[in-house]
Amino acid sequence: MDLTLRLLRHGYDAVAADRAARGVAPDAGTHASRLAGRRAVVVRSEPGARFFYDESAAERKGVVPPPLAWLLFGRGALHGLDGDAHRDRKRTMVDVLSADGLGPLVTDVGSELGSAVATWPGREVSVHPALVSVYGRAVLRWAGLPLTDERADTIAHRLSQQVDGFGFAGPAYARGWASRLWWNRYATRLAADIRAGRSQVPADAPAARVVGGIDADDRTAGVELGNILRPTVAVAWLGSFAAMRLAGRPDWRERLADPGEELARMAFAQEVRRTTPFAPVLAARATRPATIDGVRVRRGDRLVLDIMGIDHDPARWEAPGEFRPERFLDHAPGAFDLVPQGGGHPSGHRCPGESLTLRVLEATLRVLAGVPYEVVDPSVDLTRMPTTPRDGLRVRVPAGARPRSAHASSPGSA
């Protein structure tokens, strides 16, 4: 069976199922397979991951099929570029997402979520859509877009639908494409207005910096603006799992609620990312032959980075199946050991929003640690991509409960 079909059938367990069906040893770092009808080499060892992120050995252009790439990233996006074109455009994105400029966004996430949880006592709430609204409002304000809360919620949920559709899950895929087409029209007009000075977006705002810093037409500039905004909304998937894990670790609640325990919250967030990556694999194309772990790679072969395999590799992680946030308290993972958002050097194809993801999760954990909620149903469907706990993680907060105030920023957020 082609790995593509296994991804549709098994989701996050697809590579493990592929390895077992092909008689490959469970501890093998590399094996040959097929992806989209072509020969593919699946890698999870460090040499394999290094080859995957070596720009002289692998390319991205045209690898992810348009029905998926154009839905999630948009046509002409950074993710499908290589070489100088990739480096030049990524430089603009990285500059906008620099740590120095993220403080207001992270602080706003804490304030928005603090206001939201104050309404939860006596109710049953679905965490995921609540986080989509919180993160969406915060990132749209940070970007400099003058929107009402109602309009910001609409845009946030449109961006969320694009993310939810990438796993080809029936109606979700159709909703995703409807929202992608809506965004393309909206963002193209917005980019044109910003460039012509017709918008109310300040010239130094992130939205104006992205649109003005990209040497491309209005449509492509709008696509890349979405690639700055949408990933923040997508953190809601990880935020839902963070909330579920927090409920299962009462021994960490008091600690994570302490404003001075930012490093502990970061460690908890890292373990959430390790155990629940957004996607199970990434793909590229080999541009030169090689031999990795005894498996021959031919020029033109598809390369598949086994994210689940790397992040759960017993050679890298002690007791990888257990949720142990303490493993990150005194351990900084290598560039090819923790890859939920890609690996390698930040100047390459590693996600430029990785730092933002961690800081948003840290702010989220600080607020949720002060909320006395219980999870209604913690079950997770690992065949669904992207997945969340059932019903977006429904939680119940007792009537009369008083969530701790978490509006003040943590030491590393301002």
Structural class label? alpha+beta
The helix content is 40-55%
* Text of the CATH class: Mainly Alpha
Residues in β-strands, percent? 5-15%
The main pleated sheet reads as: 5 strands, mixed
Shape: globular
Provide the succession of SSEs: HHEEHEHHHEHHHHHHHEEEEHHEHE
Integer count of domains: 1
Cofactor: heme
Family: Belongs to the cytochrome P450 family.
Keywords: Heme, Iron, Metal-binding, Monooxygenase, Oxidoreductase
Pfam families: p450
Protein topology:
Elements: H1 3-10, H2 14-21, E1 30-35, E2 38-43, H3 46-52, E3 58-59, H4 66-72, H5 83-96, H6 103-117, E4 124-126, H7 127-143, H8 149-164, H9 171-196, H10 206-213, H11 218-247, H12 250-257, H13 262-275, E5 281-286, E6 290-292, E7 295-297, E8 302-306, H14 307-311, H15 354-368, E9 374-375, H16 390-393, E10 394-396
Parallel strand pairs: 2-8
Antiparallel strand pairs: 1-2, 3-5, 4-10, 5-8, 6-7, 9-10
Helix pairs in contact: 1-2, 5-10, 6-7, 6-15, 7-8, 7-11, 8-9, 8-11, 9-11, 10-11, 11-13, 11-15, 13-15
